[in-house]
Write a structure and sequence with these properties.
Layout lengths: L9 E9 L3 H5 L3 E9 L7 E12 L2 E10 L13 E8 L15 E11 L11
Antiparallel strand pairs: 1-2, 1-6, 2-3, 3-4, 4-5, 5-6
């Protein structure tokens, strides 16, 4: 399994969302810069990611999400294609400075699909 190098950020493209909020679905495709893995006692992989296109939800501006594979045999890593993921909005930015996942600081917002686009990503081509 290829790990995300500590000195490099992975760029993923969220291309589909099932039963997610209207604002998230309208933002597709959306790009995220994964910058930290969060630990949790359940052993699942959770990653903090900066949305490169922020999402307006009511009066809130969503700038960060937590993403993780929907299935235990999946993993967010270089060269993934069409990986089913869970997506949660970050509501409390203090989680950005923590090492452990805290579900109280996020809100689950949907299930989606993502692919690694790090090698081909061009920031000039995002809306």
């Amino acid at each position: 399994m290829k790990e995300i190098p500590q000195d490099r950020h992975l760029i993923i493209k969220i291309t589909a969302v099932e039963d997610g909020p209207h604002e998230l679905m309208q933002s597709l495709p959306n790009y995220c810069r994964i910058f930290r893995r969060l630990n949790h006692s359940d052993g699942s992989e959770y990653y903090l990611a900066e949305l490169l296109n922020t999402i307006e939800v009511g009066t809130k501006k969503i700038e960060y999400v937590v993403v993780g594979s929907r299935f235990t045999d999946g993993s967010i890593m270089p060269e993934i294609e069409g990986l089913p993921i869970n997506i949660a909005y970050v509501l409390d930015h203090s989680i950005l400075y923590e090492q452990d996942m805290d579900f109280a600081k996020c809100e689950f917002c949907g299930m989606g699909e993502c692919s690694d686009v790090t090698k081909t990503f061009d920031p000039e081509n995002i809306a």
